[in-house]
Amino acid sequence: MRTKEAGAAMDSEFHVQCPYCGEELDIYLEPDVQGTLIQDCEVCCNPWKVEVWWDGDERSVAVSRGDGSE
Ligand SMILES: [Zn+2]
């Protein structure tokens, strides 16, 4: 069965840069995820604060330090 939501599902991976170690990574976010969440860096294990919001009909993601040290 085909739905129009197939296009949105393709936007589930985001390229981000770790604010701690500077590593560039692709993160996967479920299509219904938005708001703010905490996720550990896969490289240095520091906590990211990941902010997800809708910008028109696509999502944008920003990563900042989740431990309040910025
Ligand atoms: Zn890192």
What would your notes on this structure say?
The chain has one domain (6-65). Helices cover 6% and strands 47% of the residues. The model has no long low-confidence stretch (mean pLDDT 87). The longest helix is centred in the N-terminal third of the chain and has 4 residues, at 6-9. It contains 1 helix and 5 strands; from the N terminus they run H-E-E-E-E-E. The strands form 2 sheets. The protein has a 3-stranded antiparallel beta sheet with strand order 3-4-5, with no helix packed on it. The chain is mainly beta and 70 residues long. The radius of gyration is 13 Å and the shape is globular. The structure holds zinc ion. Residues 18, 20-21, 23, 41, 43-44, 46 line the site of zinc ion.
Helix and strand layout, with pairings?
Elements: H1 6-9, E1 13-17, E2 24-28, E3 35-40, E4 47-55, E5 58-65
Antiparallel strand pairs: 1-2, 3-4, 4-5
The structure holds zinc ion.
Keywords:
3-stranded antiparallel β-sheet, about 70 residues, mainly beta, about 5% helix, globular, two-stranded antiparallel sheet, binds zinc ion
Short description:
With 70 residues, the chain is mainly beta. It has one helix and five strands.
Low-confidence stretches: none
The overall pLDDT average reads: 87
Q: Describe the main β-sheet briefly.
A: 3 strands, antiparallel
Strand neighbour order, sheet with most strands: 3-4-5
User: What is the count of structural domains?
Assistant: 1
